[in-house]
Design goal:
Blueprint lengths: L2 H14 L4 E8 L2 E9 L2 E8 L4 H9 L6 H12 L4 E5 L4 E6 L5 E4 L3 H4 L11 H15 L5 H16 L15 E2 L5 E2 L6 H11 L9 H11 L13 H10 L7 E7 L3 H9 L4 E6 L2 H13 L7 E3 L16 E4 L9 H6 L7 H12 L5 E7 L8 H10 L3 E8 L12 E7 L8 E6 L16 H10 L11 E4 L10 H4 L1 H9 L4 E3 L4 E6 L11 E4 L4 E2 L2 E2 L5 E3 L10 E2 L4 E4 L8 E3 L7 E3 L3 E6 L6 H9 L1 H10 L10 H5 L2 E3 L3 H38 L6
Parallel strand pairs: 3-4, 9-10, 9-12, 10-11, 12-13, 14-16, 20-27
Antiparallel strand pairs: 1-2, 2-3, 4-5, 5-6, 7-8, 13-15, 14-15, 16-17, 18-29, 19-28, 20-23, 21-22, 24-27, 25-26, 25-28
Helix pairs in contact: 5-8, 6-11, 9-10
Length: about 700
């Protein structure tokens, strides 16, 4: 093996020994040390990797170590950073040293088992303690892409032993296999069996069955969150339950999740209906293990867990078609030519293919509920053609636009919920729509019924209020335009709000002299050229403390500047559409590529009024509707030019501007008074007993 490969083996060895803070190629005394291991922020061990340690072993047995150059060099490195131990290794054998009482190198046996073992005590676990405890085990023993899977296997085994579904003595046999995914299985085939036994002994400090299952689910949801590349969708708990409630599921329903990312949806169903029939087709091994934990804890059947791609759900399962399919497919992926050939409606994206499979698998008259990227509902071209064909096969029940942040590993992606029945509509019917507005900071409840706002949406969407709809609204299916299914497009306020105020409506391009995208450049903290970037643009204001910088060398030839009383708009991510007026002290400041510079026609529209209009809900909804890109949405200049804005006469504009800016001044004055009072309060407290009041 070459040195790099040996280094990887050494790294793995010390990670399995329980060390997580390992640095490589560390500079000490103007020379490079192969590896330094820290514990509690302090250097503990320095390591030298050698291709062969044969000669060193001979030296140890025959010579005084005090005068051996190679040992002295590593000793000096350890001394320089106050590390207690220094080690030579070839990846297979480890020769340990520490200084004796006189400071001479002393060859010792490996003390690694005593060096770093977390102190575990038998605790009464509440939610927070259990999170900290399991995270500590995870950080100590596991790392890398499969770390979650290996740890989850052991947690599942412990839970199944408690449920008497497994025997502890069977777990660590070399031929142990836990068959539970219907012809799929896992084993505990990890090279370090000693480490596995050690981890399991730590888990034995926890009696999972004594913990409230909602607390256990919060713990698992906190620790095991997959990344974006996993193909898994992890949603908030209240959204999992909302999917079940809006689907109008009953105790005698049967539910399949055909793209299960951990059994969260069927977990919500089982929490409402303990005996309901569920089936999970999981997208990964980690998803299947999590889903199995959920099934065991809620009293389900672990034989209802499969690791299977949605396209490979075989026909022999279709003989018992479910009454409901509820799922959140991974979105954004383009279909392979093979899957495009299989599509019956011209699907080009994976989520569209999942819609087709759900239609194939659900029973006639059954209901399908999916989470889909908002772009599915209004994109043109092949997606519009797909919607047209789909509309001929289904009866749509609900379309609900969801706020940002409901998908934990895609927090900036706008999502909509679509619910439909597998039946061809024979007449005009009502479709429920809603723009759900709930803050991501709200408690992540297990039941949507525990939040009055969500409970009202459930009641409205399932028609339990005799059409007394207040939060959402209904439209007749004949008015659903195939070019746009987005709720924003049909929201009553969009068409009535400004008409009721008798303000004329015009396109943005009719009131501006220039709309221009910013400059392509790279930022440089040490640069001398100020840059307005999207991070500093928020609603009606620029955060001057977030001003960026660059250098001449990092700017492309085309330069776009913002001048005093121009408007700059954020054109990417969560704050897309936020607009602010450029102050005089930022006159002629260069703008980055994700900023749009707007110069209004002052003879038609006041720049201060244009800022207010652009930040209004009326305009913001249009911007979101026309934005493209699921992960980091942005809007094209052409689309922005055609955004509609209200245009009262200049006199009424001035009145509105004075009113809004007058309120902002009052807010600023009150904030200053608040700061003065806060400082006065602090001074009284700080000086109490020191000659003060």
């Amino acid at each position: 093996m070459n040195k790099k490969e040996i280094m990887l083996d050494v790294f793995d060895y010390f990670r399995e020994c329980g060390f997580s803070d390992i640095a490589t190629n560390v500079k000490i005394n103007e020379t490079i040390c192969d590896m330094v291991i820290n514990y509690e922020g302090k250097p503990q061990i320095v390591i030298e990797v050698l291709s062969s340690i044969k000669q060193l072993k001979q030296v140890i047995n025959t010579k005084d170590l005090l005068f051996e150059p190679i040992i002295n060099l590593l000793q000096s490195k350890a001394f320089a950073i106050s590390a207690q131990y220094y080690v030579f290794t070839n990846g297979d054998e480890y020769i340990w040293f520490q200084n004796d009482e006189l400071g001479a190198p002393q060859n010792i046996s490996a003390p690694v088992n005593e060096l770093h073992k977390p102190e575990y005590v038998n605790l009464e676990f509440n939610r927070e303690k259990l999170i900290n405890y399991l995270q500590r085990i995870h950080e100590t023993y596991f790392y890398g892409k499969r770390s979650n899977i290996e740890f989850l296997k052991l947690i599942l085994c412990k839970i199944m032993v408690e449920a008497k579904l497994l025997k502890k003595e069977d777990l660590f046999h070399s031929n142990f296999k836990l068959e539970f995914f219907n012809n799929n299985y896992f084993n505990l085939n990890i090279q370090n069996k000693e480490m596995h036994n050690d981890v399991y002994s730590r888990l034995e400090q926890v009696t999972f069955s004594s913990i409230k299952y909602t607390d256990l689910f919060v713990v698992l949801d906190t620790i095991f969150v997959p990344d974006r590349n996993s193909g898994e969708i992890v949603m908030t708990r209240w959204l999992s339950d909302l999917l079940i409630k809006v689907s109008d599921i009953k105790s005698d329903s049967s539910i399949w999740d055909i793209t299960s990312s951990g059994g969260y949806i069927t977990r919500a169903a089982r929490m409402s209906f303990p005996n309901i029939e569920t089936l999970n087709f999981c997208v990964s091994e980690q998803s299947a293990i999590l889903a199995t934990i959920h099934e065991v804890v809620t009293g389900g059947d672990i034989r209802n867990i499969f690791i299977r791609d949605v396209r490979h759900i075989t026909k022999n399962l279709e003989k018992n078609k479910p009454s409901h399919i509820v799922c959140a497919p991974h979105f954004g992926g383009r279909l392979s030519p093979e899957l495009r050939y299989m599509s019956t409606n011209g699907a080009t994206r994976f989520e569209e293919f999942c819609i087709e499979r759900a239609l194939d698998l659900v029973t006639e008259g059954g209901r399908v509920t999916l989470l889909l990227p908002e772009s599915f509902f209004f994109s043109g071209g092949k997606r519009q053609l797909f919607r047209r064909r789909l509309l001929e096969q289904i009866k749509i029940n609900t379309i609900i636009s969801l706020p940002l942040g409901v998908i934990k590993n895609y927090p900036t992606v706008k999502i909509c919920m679509l619910t439909f029945e597998k039946k061809k509509p024979v007449s005009n019917y009502e479709i429920y729509m809603c723009n759900l507005n709930i803050r991501s900071s709200n408690p992540d409840l297990f039941s949507a019924n525990d939040n009055n706002y969500l409970n009202k949406i459930v009641e409205e969407s399932t028609q339990q209020l005799n059409n007394n709809v207040n939060i959402g609204w209904t439209i007749w299916s004949e008015y659903l335009n195939e070019s746009n299914w987005s709720p924003y497009h049909y929201e009553p306020s969009l068409s009535t709000e400004f008409n009721e105020l008798e303000h004329p409506i015009t396109k943005l391009k009719n009131v501006t002299l220039k709309i221009q995208r910013g400059t392509s450049l790279k930022l440089e903290k040490a640069g001398e050229i100020p840059v307005i970037s999207p991070g500093m643009i928020r609603t009606t204001a620029l955060s001057l403390d977030k001003l960026d910088f660059t250098t001449d060398e990092k700017i492309q030839k085309r330069r776009v500047y913002a001048y005093s009383n121009n408007i700059v708009m954020n054109n990417i991510g969560t704050h897309i559409g936020s607009s602010a007026l450029v102050p005089s002290d930022l006159n002629e400041t260069i703008c980055s590529q994700h900023v749009i510079v707007i110069k209004g026609n002052d003879s038609i529209i006041l720049p201060q009024f244009l800022v207010i209009a652009l930040n209004s809900e009326y305009v913001q909804m249009q911007i979101l509707k026309n934005a493209t890109g699921t992960v980091m949405p942005s809007i094209s200049i052409t689309q922005l030019e055609n955004i509609k804005i209200p245009l009262p006469d200049l006199t009424r504009q001035k009145v509105l501007v004075e009113h809004v800016y007058g309120i902002e001044k009052k807010i600023k004055d009150l904030q200053e008074q608040l700061n003065i009072l806060a400082n006065e309060r602090k001074n009284i407290i700080d000086n109490f007993g020191l000659g003060g009041m």
